[in-house]
Amino acid sequence: MIRTRILLHHEPSGTASDAEALVGRIRSIIGSVAVDCDCRQRVNEALGRFAEMEQQRVTRCHLMSSRQHRAAIAALVGLLAELEDISFHEADRSVFAEFASLFDDIAHHARLGAEALRLLDGEDA
Questions:
Q1: Which residues, at least 6 apart from 52, have a Cβ–Cβ distance to it below 8 Å?
Q2: pLDDT score, position 10
Q3: Of 45, 47, 56, which Cα lies nearest the Cα of 21?
Q4: Which of 118, 116, 105 minimizes the C-alpha distance to 73?
Q5: Is the pLDDT of residue 2 over 50?
Q6: 39 within domain boundaries
Q7: Is residue 28 assigned to a domain?
Q8: From which domain of life does this come (predicted)?
Q9: Structure confidence by residue, pLDDT tens digits, 66-98
Q10: Is residue 2 part of a domain?
Q11: Between these two residues, 102 and 14, which has the higher pLDDT value?
Q12: pLDDT higher than 60, residue 125
């Protein structure tokens, strides 16, 4: 059996609070600049829309991440089906370490998937 590791390349970048902090910094800069009220209001509205879109982007990324971890777990469980084909009399004892590693990988993906979902739960989605 060949050691298989399923890696996910798409992990959420940034958080909603990062976007909120950025919007806050921009608002404070704009607040210190002498611009007319109409312009300031339009900029604040645009920043509000940006913050909302950024929140949605981060939420989608966390959900996509959890789905990718679920898919990785499904693929690893498929590989574990080969466990039915070996016996405790197996001549190559390293096969047991390989299967143990598959279980470790499943646990790893389960932990990361759960973390992504917990981040979703903690956000104002």
A1: none
A2: 47
A3: 47
A4: 105
A5: no
A6: yes
A7: yes
A8: Bacteria
A9: 999 999 999 999 999 999 999 988 888 999 999
A10: no
A11: 102
A12: no
57: containing domain: 16-122
Number of domains in the chain: 1
Q: What is the DSSP string of the chain?
A: -------------S-HHHHHHHHHHHHHHHHHS---HHHHHHHHHHHHHHHHHHHHHHHHHHHHHHHHHHHHHHHHHHHHGGGGG--TT-S-THHHHHHHHHHHHHHHHHHHHHHHHHHHHHS--
d(CA 99, CA 40): 61
Whether residue 123 has pLDDT greater than 70: no
Up-side HSE of residue 8: CA atoms within 13 Å toward CB? 23
What CA–CA distance (Å, rounded) separates 117 from 99?
27
The answer as to whether 30 is a domain residue is: yes
Instruction: Quote the CA–CA distance of 36 and 111 in Å, as a whole number.
Output: 51
Predicted confidence (pLDDT) per residue in 10-57, tens digit? 445 566 677 778 888 887 877 777 667 778 788 888 888 988 898 899
Closest CA to 76 of 96, 57, 108, 103: 103
